C-alpha cells in the first residue's frame, strides 16, 4: 500500500485544543465533549453514536443560546440562525438514507470537525469576547434545555 493510500484510509481525527477555548467554562466543556463524540463516530455503532452526538448537539446549542439570550448578546438572533443552518445541513446529510460506509462516516466526521472549528473560532469566540467585555458576574449555568426548539423538531425529538 502506498503512503498516499494509507493516508486516504486513515480516519480523519481532530483533537480538542486549548486554543479552542472561548473563555466561558460551561461552553468550553461542552465543545470539548462534542469533539470527543465526533471522534467516537464509527461504522460499527454508527446509528447509536450519531444519535448520541445529535442529542448532545441539541443540548449544547440550547444551553449556549440560553446563555446568549439571558446575557443580552446583541448578535443572538444571527447566532441562532447559524445553529439552524447547521441543523438543516446535518438533516440533509442524514436524510438521503444512503447506507453507512466507512467513507460516509468519515465524511460526516470531517464536516462536523470543520464546522465546529470554524464556528467556535469565529462566532462562539466573538460571544466569549463580548461576554468578557461586559464585566458582569460569571455566566449563569444554563439549565438542561427543554427540547422543543427548531433543532429538536428537525431531528424528530420533542
Ligand atoms: Fe454556537
The residue fraction in helices comes out at 55-70%
Computed over alpha carbons, the radius of gyration is 17 Å
State the end-to-end CA separation.
48 Å
CATH class: Mainly Alpha
Ligands bound to this protein structure: fe (ii) ion
- Find the CATH topology: Four Helix Bundle (Hemerythrin (Met), subunit A)
Could you report the average pLDDT, rounded to the nearest whole number? 86
Shape: globular
User: How many beta-strand runs?
Assistant: 0
- Largest sheet: number of strands, sense, barrel closure: none
H/E topology pattern: HHHHHH
Overall tally of structural domains:
1
**What structural class do you assign from the helix and strand content?**
mainly alpha
SS strand fraction: under 5%
Tell me the number of helical segments per DSSP (H or I, 4 or more residues long).
6
- The low-confidence runs, each spanning 5 or more residues with pLDDT under 50, are none
CATH superfamily: Hemerythrin-like
User: Can you tell me the CATH architecture?
Assistant: Up-down Bundle
Give the gist of this structure:
Helices cover 66% and strands 0% of the residues. It is mainly α and 158 residues long.
What does this structure look like?
The chain is an all-alpha fold and 158 residues long. Helix content is 66%, strand content 0%. The model has no long low-confidence stretch (mean pLDDT 86). It has one domain: Four Helix Bundle (Hemerythrin (Met), subunit A) (Up-down Bundle). It is built from six helices and no strands. The longest helix is centred in the last third of the chain and has 32 residues, at 102-133. Bound molecules: fe (ii) ion.
Amino acid at each position: 500500500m502506498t503512503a498516499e493510500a494509507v493516508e486516504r484510509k486513515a480516519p480523519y481525527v481532530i483533537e480538542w485544543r486549548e486554543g479552542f477555548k472561548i473563555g466561558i467554562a460551561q461552553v468550553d466543556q461542552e465543545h470539548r465533549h462534542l469533539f470527543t463524540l465526533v471522534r467516537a463516530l464509527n461504522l460499527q455503532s454508527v446509528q447509536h453514536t450519531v444519535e448520541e452526538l445529535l442529542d448532545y448537539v441539541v443540548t449544547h446549542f440550547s444551553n449556549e443560546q440560553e446563555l446568549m439570550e439571558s446575557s443580552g448578546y446583541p448578535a443572538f438572533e444571527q447566532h441562532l440562525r447559524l445553529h439552524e443552518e447547521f441543523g438543516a445541513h446535518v438533516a440533509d446529510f442524514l436524510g438521503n438514507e444512503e447506507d453507512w460506509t466507512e467513507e460516509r462516516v468519515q465524511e460526516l466526521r470531517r464536516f462536523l470537525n470543520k464546522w465546529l472549528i470554524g464556528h467556535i473560532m469565529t462566532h462562539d469566540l466573538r460571544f466569549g469576547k463580548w461576554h468578557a467585555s461586559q464585566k458582569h458576574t460569571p455566566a449563569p449555568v444554563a439549565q438542561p434545555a427543554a427540547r422543543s426548539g427548531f433543532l429538536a423538531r428537525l431531528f424528530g425529538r420533542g
